[in-house]
Design a protein that fits this description.
- It is a single chain.
- By secondary structure, this protein is of the alpha+beta class.
- It has helices spanning 14-29, 87-103; strands spanning 45-53, 61-69, 74-81.
- The chain has a three-stranded antiparallel beta sheet.
- The longest helix is centred in the C-terminal third of the chain and has 17 residues, at 87-103.
- The relative contact order is 0.16.
Length: 107
């Protein structure tokens, strides 16, 4: 059914939402975080989740999805590498893309 207004809405209380955001932030901030490579952005708050999707003999898909808050813009993103291997590969590409966006004054 294309009418999404009929679908149930999942509501989170404020405490649950804060816990989700904290987990997404720790992926970047924590020394052991799966996206710690992105911790070098001092004036940009990045929140994200890494993952891999098994894809059989051709190799796993790598992905990183998240959002950021910067002095210039807020944005959401998804980097998906078909047969890209480990999620760290998607994080590395995100790192490069975000640095270029910063260099161009986008974020």
């Amino acid at each position: 059914d294309p009418d999404v207004t009929k679908r149930p809405v999942v509501r989170l209380n404020e405490q649950s939402w804060r816990m989700v955001q904290e987990g997404l932030r720790l992926a970047i901030q924590d020394k052991e975080g799966t996206a710690n490579l992105l911790s070098d952005f001092e004036d940009i708050k990045i929140f994200g989740k890494t993952g891999t999707a098994q894809a059989g003999r051709q190799g796993d898909h790598a992905w990183f999805v998240g959002y950021l808050r910067s002095p210039k813009n807020n944005l959401a993103f998804c980097v998906f590498l078909e047969h890209g291997g480990a999620s760290s590969n998607a994080v590395a590409l995100t790192h490069d893309l975000l640095h270029q966006m910063k260099d161009f004054g986008i974020i």
